[in-house]
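[INFO] parsing input record for DCC family thiol-disulfide oxidoreductase YuxK
[DEBUG] input buffer:
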Amino acid sequence: MREQPVLLYDGDCGFCTASVRFAERRIGLRARATPWQRADLAALGTTRERADREVLWVERGRVYGGAQAVARLLIAAGPPWSLPGLLLRMPPLRWAAQGVYRLVSANRHRLPGGTPACALPAGRR
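[DEBUG] output buffer:
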């Protein structure tokens, strides 16, 4: 049996948590969604610094971050979501998606479900 992918997200961030719940309900998340604060990051091949900076998709020993983690989530969900996921992996959409991801990530405390805690680094929450 193939090991299920893991989606690591910021469990202290309301926007991040709401986004994962949306993916579970509407997209059909095919991964174990885990707040990075409760995960064994070393066993998953990543660090606290990276997990605090971006959403991560861990699959078969590989770690994908930011927009590419979202692309992997969409691909794993299957049709019709897999097509946008595949498109997000190809330049120039890949580059644009990463820019949009960084913009959203930097402003998540201002987005629906966001809280002031979303703007703070993990060490200050």
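[INFO] The chain has one domain: 6-116.
[INFO] shutting down worker
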